[in-house]
Amino acid sequence: MFFALGLSASPAFADGASSVTNIFKPDGAPARAIFDYTMLVLAVCAVIFVIVVGLLVYTVTRFRHRREDDGQEPPQVYGSNQIELAWTVIPIIIVFVLTLVTARTIAEVQNAVPPPKALKVTVVGHQWWWEIRYPDLGVVTANELHVPVSDPAQPRPTFLKLESADVAHSFWIPQLAGKTDVIPNRDNSMWIEPVTPGTYLGNCAEYCGTQHARMLIRVIVHPQGEFENWVAAQKPDSATDTNLVAAQKPDSATDTQVKAGRDVFFSTSCVNCHTINGTEANGKFGPDLTHLMSRQTLGSGAALNTPEKLRAWVRNPQNLKPGCYMPDMQLTDEEMDQLVRYLLTLN
Amino acid sequence: MVAANPEIPLARPLVSPSIVTRLHGLVVTVDHKKLGLMYIASALFFLVVAGLMASVIRLQLALPNNNIVAPDTFNRLFTVHGTAMVFFVGMPIVAGLSNYLVPLMIGARDMAFPRLNAFGYWMFLFGAALLFFSYIGAPGLSGHGSAPDVGWFAYAPLTGRAFSRGNSTDYWTLCLLVSGIGSLSSAVNVIATAFGMRSPGMTLMRMPLFVWMMVVVSAMMFIVIPPLTAAQIMLLIDRFLGGNFFNTQSGGSAVLWQHFFWIFGHPEVYVLMIPGFACASEIIPVFSRKPIFGYSAMVGATTMIAFVSMGVWAHHMFSMGMTSVGNTFFMISTMAISVPTGIKIFNWLATMYGGKIRFELPMLCCLAFLFQFLIAGLTGIMLAAVPFDWHLTDTYFVVAHFHYVLIGGMLFCIFGGIYYWFPKATGRMLNKTLGLWHVALFFIGFHLTFDTMHIPGLLGMPRRIYTYDPGRGWELLNLITSIGVVFQIVGIACLAWNLIRSLRKGEKAGDDPWDAWTLEWATTSPPPEYNFETVPPVRSARPLWDLKHPEDPDWKYE
Amino acid sequence: MINADRLNLPYTSAEWSLPSSRKVAIASLIVTESAMFTIFVVAYVYYIGKSLTGPYPAEVLETPIVSTICLLASSLTIVLAERSFKRESIGAFRLWWSTTILLAAVFLGSTAAEWKRLIVDHHLTISTNLFGTTFYSLVGLHASHVIVGLTLLTLVLVLSLKKSIRKADGERIEMLSWYWHFVDGVWVVVFTVVYVIGR
């Protein structure tokens, strides 16, 4: 059992995600500002460490009791006001300088005003997944935040409004920004401005219950021009919806299975929790499934989004994410196959 | 446990009392020494229990996607581990040390309110029993027991009825309400004793620093435990009477809980740490053969820490979305508290400087403390640096930081205190070889675990996750962190064996094995029930130094 | 000087005076309780105006003038009782002490009547809205402290009637009166916050 890796799959990051979320590899303006500031703080701490440890080692070595000692007590020194003053004033000066630099960086990151071209996104934290809404674009998706890359000459940051549907969460992509809590009945905001395309990983960073560990985040930064393509594909009346409809036409090879799977979806209680655009399904409790197959992972990072894992998830989500709020729907094998065929058409 | 001292005529029967009589004696005792030792023994017991829980946590996290324990079990483990360590290990050690030593150090016969003392102990024990009983007593949805799983600081609204079904959160709330009353009782007693029962000649500025620091800690407890009590009463009102304090659906504020909790929670960690400072302030001078450097500065610095610590609480909430003004204010206060703390470190160094340092076990523990507390303080500065904290908070960096303070700082001082005062309490020395094994193994294990633990935090690993995926760069670091636990377990086992064995077979200690200077060393080891046959005259902070060095007493220089 | 004789000393402690343990203990208790009340007051103030639904304070609260006067007067009567005790006029002591108890009882009865009116007539309970929760918690916490004080005051009265109280118990009675003044002081704060500011 010690060495078994269990059924809960680990997404091997073969999809090119930069998997090591090192805060010392920042990308984009807020992360860089924090990084530069951090280097100063670490330098100050390192100097203090070296000095004090040096004093400690020196004192312990020089003034250790030696065997050939005469047995007399050493001179009894009670204190010195000047020395006390010295090691009060010097730390105060260091602290003063640090607070000035810190205050400036705080303001730089927190008080940034969104420029007119900024992308606005609302992130809603749920137990244990992320709802991502683009209010100006009419797009709703889950668990992956897609943003355009920003050119330092013409910055295009993304400003996030953070809301919670239930308990406190925290949104953290280490390479792009510091974390900001996601708290019910409170609107928080943060911004990112990534300059390098790619996939950035993150975690929910506030304990929110059973599956806090598997409430992962992916930020996909699109190169120039490609973000608009993604938006177009996600919009409610996009071309992919046309594909969806086409896949269900009478002469399509997978037609009967897909149709049967559609019936399974709409006759079980899937519709109570999930939304699929253009259908009667508009449940809000679980993630929007309209473009399910366009995402990299299932269950906000519980597994990679492959047909096998999709089947395993629908079979019994509790095997991949025990304690999550999607129940085992107790489907027969045949219903499972049909349902998965249907879900695979949701591009 | 109480050895017969041939110089004092026996006042007890020649036949050793039966185990039942002895246990009954402990249940009804109001003697501060017995209660103090009961506090400490209970604390060490819960240290082992909560430590084993931590070991299971580390076993689970040693490998990615491990399944030693289920997610819910893991979440309960870290909640109960944290709650038990703070409230049923840390607080009783504070209470035990202060109850045992304060009357002895001021030349008093007992605490001011002996029955209140006993009341406080049993409230603490009952609180601890409630917490562990929740494992079997608190029905969850499935009907079998479930301990609290909301984290030791129990953020709202996760603790509300809607998200925390069953009674596990109620056990958390009640066990702390009950033991909080016990802590307050102990605090009242310490203050009343220190102010009202000092030996003639012992002015406040001649009290041992240990007593001063316990007074400061007790005063802090009056001010900071009630906010937790208040917040918990509010939580109970929410959960049982439909109150709306933290009910975000009806306009309540989740953030209010955070403020109230941390108004308690931050000073609480100083309540835990300052008694460690108290032990160090007694041990370092004796084993450097010099008085503490800057007695008044130490008193002043401790008081400053106590005051400032009540104004820094929101540094636990830097990512919560306060305005830049709010964040800046708490950043300034948090950075400021490093000044009096630094003063103390420098004073301890200056005490050693020019002395003749003896590397006995109490001193070795305090030297480790100095080194480790410095590091903990520096990572604290990093956490006070708000923009840096936006990365570090809620990650394993913070977990490493506070374990560095509490284990590397406080627990090492407590170890020093145990080696220092065990002879006084029992009349026997602890075995030096076993002690060296304990300290060495624990030191190695501590550093393997907690030095390494900082790094996953820097690489993005949040806290309170029951597992993680490979490929994040966390695997080897977590494995090393977990391996360090093995050394710590063996080290603690050496200490436990040393304690048990030395009770019977330890070398006889005598009144004053360390050639020390405060009043507790002026009576027998262990002290008789009435503490002192005669109290030496007190004319300075080191009455026994004055007695031993009549040609060069302290009071000539004050 | 109470505790000096507990010490076992080789010489006299005539010049050595220390604060009384009892006074220190009650002062500590008052500090602790003040800290707790402060948090409830902070919660009350924070939630002023934030209730999502009614009833709202201005609609339903009536200023409790009479009961406030009674409670504050009880601080005066307890001082008179203490003075009588010091003068050793036990009859006067019992009279003023009983008056204190009576005034406290009137206060509690008035609070109970007010709560009945709020619950039955205005349907304001602890779970109705933020105002309900914070109002009943804060006023209730204070009332519970009045009940504890009232119980202790009654105990002292009974003991006095049984002639079990001696002159040496003067400090104990003084400590109880400190607690009582504290409870009255808290009421001043609660009254101001709830009935003046919060409306």
Mean pLDDT of chain C: 92
Tally of DSSP helical segments of chain C? 6
Summing up helix and strand content along with how strands pair, one would put the structural category of chain B as mainly alpha
Largest interface comes to:
A-B, 98 and 100 residues
The radius of gyration of chain C is 21 Å
> What helical percentage do the residues of chain C reach?
over 70%
Structural class of chain C: mainly alpha
Q: For the terminal residues of chain C, how far apart are their CA atoms?
A: 49 Å
CATH level-1 class of chain B: Mainly Alpha
- Helicity level of chain B: 55-70%
Q: What share of residues are in beta strands of chain B?
A: under 5%
Major beta-sheet overview of chain C: none
- The assigned CATH architecture of chain B is Up-down Bundle
Protein described:
- The complex is a heterotrimer of chains A (about 350), B (about 550) and C (about 200).
- Chain A has helices at about 30-60, 80-110, 225-235, 240-245, 255-265, 270-275, 305-315, 315-320, 335-345, and strands spanning about 120-125, 130-135, 140, 145-150, 160-165, 170, 180, 190, 200-205, 215-220, 295-300, 305.
- Chain A is of the alpha+beta class.
- Chain A folds into two domains: about 15-60 and about 110-230, Cupredoxins -  blue copper proteins (Immunoglobulin-like, Sandwich), CATH 2.60.40.420; about 235-345, Immunoglobulin-like (Sandwich).
- Chain A has a five-stranded mixed beta sheet. A five-stranded mixed beta sheet of chain A has the order 4-10-9-6-7. In chain A, strands 11-12 form a two-stranded antiparallel sheet.
- Residues about 1-15 of chain A have low confidence and may be disordered.
- With about 550 residues, chain B is mainly α.
- Chain B has one domain: Cytochrome c oxidase-like, subunit I domain (Cytochrome C Oxidase, Chain A).
- Chain B has helices spanning about 20-30, 30-60, 70-105, 115-135, 170-195, 210-240, 255-290, 295-310, 325-335, 340-350, 360-385, 385-390, 395-425, 430-460, 475-505, 545-550.
- The longest helix of chain B has about 35 residues, at about 70-105.
- Chain C is mainly alpha-helical.
- Helix content of chain C is about 75%, strand content about 0%.
- The N and C termini of chain C lie far apart (about 50 Å).
- Residues about 1-10 of chain C have low confidence and may be disordered.
- At the A-B interface, helix 1, helix 2 and strand 9 of A face helix 3, helix 7, helix 8, helix 9 and helix 10 of B.
